[in-house]
Amino acid sequence: MKIIKNKEFLRNIAQQLDLFNTVGGGISETYVDVKKYKKGAIINVWAAGVNPEAFKVVLHNNQLTIYSVLHSEHNPQLAAPLFNKVFMLPPAVNLGRIEAIYQEGQLQVKLPYYESVEQPREIEIKQQ
């Protein structure tokens, strides 16, 4: 059996194997819960072992994407996706007021509704 003498190659392959081993068995599955209320909705995401910096929340039009990526400590260019979830937001959500908070191992994304959605309003009929 020949021993690989290129230490740089061995170091790079070891980092990749370590990263994929962690992804394959070292991290528990992500749990997502969506609750709807009168004034809005809340998306709760729990992912054991995931740092707050690994989460990303991206809004594009009415599409909200929440994902997390595991980066290698030794090679910042090496990363593996851990979680990816896309939500199509209803027109009632005030896109300008969405906020995300990470607290005690949980990511919480608040989706407030427009205030006009809360109560019906009668529209005056004008005569000409």
Keywords:
128 residues, alpha+beta, Immunoglobulin-like, three-stranded antiparallel beta sheet, 7 strands
Helix tally equals: 2
Tell me the series of helices and strands, N- to C-terminal. HEEEEEEEH
Q: Point out poorly predicted stretches.
A: none
Helix/strand-derived category reads alpha+beta
Indicate how many domains the architecture comprises.
1
CATH class: Mainly Beta
Per DSSP E runs of 2 or more residues, the count of β-strands stands at 7
Characterize the overall form. elongated
Please state the second-level CATH architecture: Sandwich
Strand portion, in percent? 35-45%
Radius of gyration, in Å, reads 22 Å
- Average of the residue pLDDT scores: 80
CATH third-level topology: Immunoglobulin-like
- Largest beta-sheet details: 4 strands, antiparallel
Terminus-to-terminus distance:
95 Å
Helical coverage, percent range: 10-25%
How is the largest sheet built, in terms of strand order?
Answer: 1-2-7-6
3D structure, described in words:
By secondary structure, the protein is α+β, with helices and mostly antiparallel strands. It has a single domain, classed as Immunoglobulin-like (Sandwich), CATH 2.60.40. Helices cover 19% and strands 39% of the residues. It is built from 2 helices and 7 strands. The protein is elongated. It starts with 6 loop residues before the first helix and ends in a 10-residue tail after the last helix. The model has no long low-confidence stretch (mean pLDDT 80).
